[in-house]
Amino acid sequence: MKRSEINRVIDEAREFWGSLGFLLPPYAVWDLDAWRACCDDWTEIFDLGIGWDVTSFGEEDFLKCGLLLYTLRNGKLGSVQYPKPYAEKIMMVREGQVTPRHFHWHKREDIINRGGGNLVIELFRADPSANRVCGGPFSISVNGIRRQMNSGEKLILTPGESVALEPIHAHKFYGEPGSGPSMIGEVSMVNDDVNDNCFVDGAIRFVPVIEDEPPRYLLACEYRQFLKG
How far apart (Å, rounded) are the C-alpha atoms in residues 130 and 5? Predict the structure, then answer.
């Protein structure tokens, strides 16, 4: 992705979330100079990947296949230094913008529609031990109520609704066409994007950045790249 596109979509997410009354930490808007001018110890922020995350999953068109999110809090599995067992994210999902099918070997997560448009989630029964989608019926909790679904069935979350996903639930999601962008929350066990994502259709989680203009925001995965020492 081009840096200019990353800068632009973060600007748009800030405006969208702000219109719904959702506020980010102060350092979410810091540019490179602001980070360098800060004398505080931000090791925990860097180690746990707190901050911006923008990806096109290796596709050319971010608006068709991509995701923008901000990790608000996180821990680290097995860490004495960072024992927090939970994580939280906020996402902007646009109409028809696909996050490809994936599941997590360890993480359980609640996906919550916090406002805006509707979220469509295509759900598939997965076999994490075999790294594959296996099909067949499964049980899932939607708004705290158990229900049966079949692999490949769609679930639509309107604002205020939520679903609890387990490792057996592979999922693909996007904004429902015609409903507008949605603000999607995630409350989960510790998040580890490097070691706990299985994209069953081969998507690329982190994509290279083409530096066509200076960064107005730093992505969480590149703090140390720009802030060495």
Answer: 37
Is the Cβ–Cβ distance between 199 and 132 less than 8 Å?
Answer: no
Q: Where are the beta strands (DSSP E) in the chain?
A: 51-55, 67-73, 86-93, 99-103, 109-116, 119-127, 132-133, 137-142, 145-150, 154-157, 162-165, 169-175, 182-189, 198-199
Residue (of 217, 219, 218, 227) closest to 38 by Cα position: 227
Fold of 3-226: Jelly Rolls (2.60.120)
| pLDDT tens-digit readout, 72-95 | 999 999 999 999 999 999 999 999
DSSP string, 76-126: -TT-SSS---EEEEEEEE-BT-BEEEEE-SS--EEEEEEEES-EEEEEEEE
What gap in Å lies between CA 213 and CA 31, rounded to an integer?
A: 13
Q: Residue 108 and residue 168: Cα distance in Å, rounded?
A: 10
Nearest to 106 by CA among 195, 186, 199, 201: 195
Radius of gyration of the chain (CA): 17
Locate the DSSP E strands across 1-103: 51-55, 67-73, 86-93, 99-103
Q: Are 118 and 178 in contact (CB under 8 A)?
A: no
What tens digit of pLDDT does each residue of 136-184 get?
A: 999 999 999 999 999 999 999 999 999 999 999 999 999 999 999 999 9
**Contact (Cβ atoms closer than 8 angstroms) between residue 16 and residue 116:** yes
pTM score: 0.96
Q: Residue ranges of the domains in the chain?
A: 3-226
Place of tokens 């929350």: 185
